[in-house]
Amino acid sequence: MIEARKITKFFPVINPQGLAEGITAVLSVSLKVEEGEFVAVVGPTGCGKSTFLEIMAGLQAPTEGEVYIDGKLVLEPLPSTRKEIEIYQRKYRFLSPIANDLWRDIPKSDIAMIFQDYAVFPWMTALENVFFTLTLRRVPKGERSYLARKYLNLVGLSGAENKYPSQLSGGMRQRVALARALSVEPKIILMDEPFAAVDALAREKLNEDLLSIWQSMKKTIVFVTHDINEALYLADRVVVFSPQPGTVRNIIPVNLPRPRKRASREIGELRERIWQIYQYDATGEIIDYVI
Amino acid sequence: MDRKLTYETKGLNLVLKELSAFFTGIAKNNFTVEFFTVFVPIIILWEALPRLGVVPPTLVPPPSVVAETFWDLLVNHDLIGHVGISLLRFFLGLAVAIVTAIPIGILMGWNMFLRRHALPLFQILAPIPSPAWVPITIILLGIGLPMQVFLVFLGVFYPVLFDTYQGVKDTDPRYIASARVFGASELTLIKRVYLPNALSFIVMGVKIGIALGLVMLIVSEMVGAHSGIGWLLVESKDFFRIDRMVACMLTLGFIGWFLIEVMKYIEIKLALWKVGR
Ligand SMILES: Nc1ncnc2c1ncn2[C@@H]1O[C@H](COP(=O)(O)OP(=O)(O)OP(=O)(O)O)[C@@H](O)[C@H]1O
Ligand SMILES: [Mg+2]
């Protein structure tokens, strides 16, 4: 179970005039994701979805708020007063709080993440990429090769195992990232627009595969996407973010039985509702009764 | 017994294969038609001008004379021995510099805490031109192998150090993040993320280091040695043997060029993933 409590993230930036400014990427977002739940997050570009996901993964410390995964605090929030800052700096003098152990490979929590820009290692072949994460999770040596091939097959990359990412297309790279995340069989998967770079047909196929993996292995998934249809097709709940600073604008439950039909009337209605929220946020124009 | 033999032949075959690939690569990339259209006229001019008396042959020895001198050095003056001792000094210095600079560079690039402590020191020391170290080195270490090795080391150390540091520091944070989510320890990060990312930077640093190391080798041999190519050069000056000097200079040029070619080959072998596209 993931529990995010009032997450706020503030980035100090220098504006073009050379003055210090700041932007609030995420503002007081609370979200509870139950065990085995599939939650989609949608929102306009730049609203802080990726930032929120990275905070949940423990890759960025929130400015305020806490994330608990299975009751365990992921990262303490950044200090705010001068005194706190001093203590914090002393505490993390040698290793950054985001680092894992110095010598042993231990993840902070049993999660895997797929990044928006894939972040597969260009110096490893597709197979070596998957192999690497399996090694990190201490999968016994004998099983690694089998598992790596199995998951590369699953995402449709058989035959490209020994290619380097630079020799793969964007969509194929994304699949390597997918295989890498699935192969370690984590309890929780955080996905940041994982299918943005594949064509519509392949995307539908990957959606099906993801659903069957989710259903058979009972994983908890948080899925960020730009595609409202995809969100409604996949998720139990759709979290709608507002434009910057990102807050939870609305949470829309999708109580439709699976397998769902993409073109069904119910999905159409829900899509219309989310569109109107977007429209209202963008122009301030009320088209119909919203919320 | 049988098995050992096959292993040996296998190993030998592999070495032969790599060597032939290396030399074919050199030949293909360097000795092109375009190269010869520049090279041949230069040689002809060089031979013709002194012979026709356009320039004094005592000051500009033509290539045929240089070749003769080279042969003479080889047969009568133990050129091989001098090259050998120079290379020994050079490789000792190079090896010491590489095994110290790369780990220090990695540590500084990886960790902010260590960087803050170590980097300023190196940034103050590095701008001192390496030849400026010669007098103090001679006084402290005396004339001999330690002094020559130390001076070569000084030439190689900083470029390798700073390039390694830069390559490690500039690792895309996305790669680090993606390894960390899966639980990578800092040690694993260094071995599997920072180092492969920095590899081409390191090779570049070593290339620059080789060039500067050769400079320091010659400087150290000119002022503090009784053997080696640098010493041969100075001695030729004392006897006003311009032909010998030219032969020595060409030998040095060849050594430097060859080492850089070796580094290029190593780079391709190590960073295969970059060649892909
Ligand atoms: N390290 C950073 N420093 C300064 N600003 C940042 C940083 N990271 C993100 N931001 C800002 O925070 C905001 C949210 O960024 P984020 O990447 O989370 O958006 P997003 O919702 O994922 O957008 P998209 O849908 O385009 O992926 C953006 O305005 C971005 O400019
Ligand atoms: Mg994003």
Topology:
The complex is a heterodimer of chains A (291) and B (277).
Chain A (H helix, E strand, L loop, with lengths): L1 E13 L5 E14 L4 E5 L6 H9 L6 E6 L2 E2 L8 H10 L19 E4 L11 H11 L4 H14 L15 H14 L4 E5 L7 H18 L2 E5 L3 H7 L2 E5 L6 E6 L11 H19 L8
Parallel strand pairs in A: 3-8, 3-9, 6-7, 7-8
Antiparallel strand pairs in A: 1-2, 1-4, 4-5, 9-10
Helix pairs in contact in A: 3-4, 3-5, 4-5, 7-8
Chain B lengths: L1 H29 L2 H19 L11 H14 L2 H32 L1 H14 L8 H8 L3 H25 L3 H9 L4 H38 L5 H10 L3 H29 L1 H4 L2
Helix pairs in contact in B: 3-11, 4-5, 4-7, 4-9, 6-7, 7-9, 9-10, 9-11, 10-11
Magnesium ion binds next to helix 1 of chain A.
Which regions of chain B contain 5 or more consecutive residues with pLDDT less than 50?
A: none
Approximately how much helix is present in the residues of chain A? 25-40%
Structural class by secondary-structure content of chain A: alpha/beta
CATH topology of the largest domain in chain B: MetI-like fold
Major beta sheet, strand line-up of chain A:
6-7-8-3-9-10
Proportion of residues in helical segments of chain B? over 70%
Which runs of chain A of at least 5 residues are low in confidence (pLDDT < 50)? none
Q: Can you write the helix and strand succession of chain B as a string?
A: HHHHHHHHHHHH
Q: Helix segment count of chain A?
A: 8
| Rg from alpha-carbon coordinates of chain A | 20 Å
Strand residue percentage of chain B: under 5%
Question: In the CATH hierarchy, what is the class of the largest domain in chain B?
Answer: Mainly Alpha
**Structural domain tally of chain A:** 1
Largest sheet of chain A: 6 strands, mixed
SSE series of chain A = EEEHEEHEHHHEHEHEEH
CATH architecture identity of chain A: 3-Layer(aba) Sandwich
Q: What is the highest CATH level, the class of chain A?
A: Alpha Beta
